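Need residues for this backbone.
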């Protein structure tokens, strides 16, 4: 019987790559969140929910699909959408196709909020992520990120369907 297999330890270059990514994963969300809170009074997650709805057909998604796309649990999403509903940005209704599901629909006020917040957010994304990179590095980042996401989520086969300008639909 074979004993436990020795782990494949990281070499120096792999360790540096991992530590750089880990530091980025810790600092980037806080930086994006700070800009949106300062300029729009919403968190990055709240913006993401509004933006995903703005890009959906009829500005409507099932809550379960929205949670998946936002990378959040349904309870976390429900709390955020409840607050957005109180602000008049989102409306929740039973899905007429299957009453077991709930639809989230972006309202006109919600569309205005995401449209107002988008320019500052895009400027910050550009400043922090895209401007420091060459076009080739940006393409590499997209490819690398896609590979990591597929390793994490084997069910993630969606193409990168975001519009090139990353603006929410009007």
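Answer:
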């Amino acid at each position: 019987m074979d004993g436990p297999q020795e782990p494949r330890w990281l070499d120096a270059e792999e360790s540096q790559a991992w530590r750089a990514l880990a530091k980025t994963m810790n600092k980037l969300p806080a930086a994006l969140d700070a800009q949106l809170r300062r300029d729009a009074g919403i968190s990055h997650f709240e913006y993401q929910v509004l933006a995903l709805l703005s890009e959906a057909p009829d500005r409507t998604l099932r809550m379960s699909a929205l949670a998946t796309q936002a990378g959040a649990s349904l309870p976390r999403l429900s709390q955020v959408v409840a607050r957005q509903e109180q602000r008049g940005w989102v409306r929740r209704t039973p899905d007429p196709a299957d009453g077991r599901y709930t639809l989230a629909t972006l309202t006109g006020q919600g569309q205005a909020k995401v449209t107002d917040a988008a320019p500052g957010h895009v400027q910050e994304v550009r400043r922090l992520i895209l401007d420091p990179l060459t076009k080739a590095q940006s393409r590499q980042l997209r490819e690398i990120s896609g590979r990591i996401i597929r390793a994490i989520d084997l069910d993630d086969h969606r193409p990168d369907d975001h519009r090139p300008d990353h603006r929410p639909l009007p």
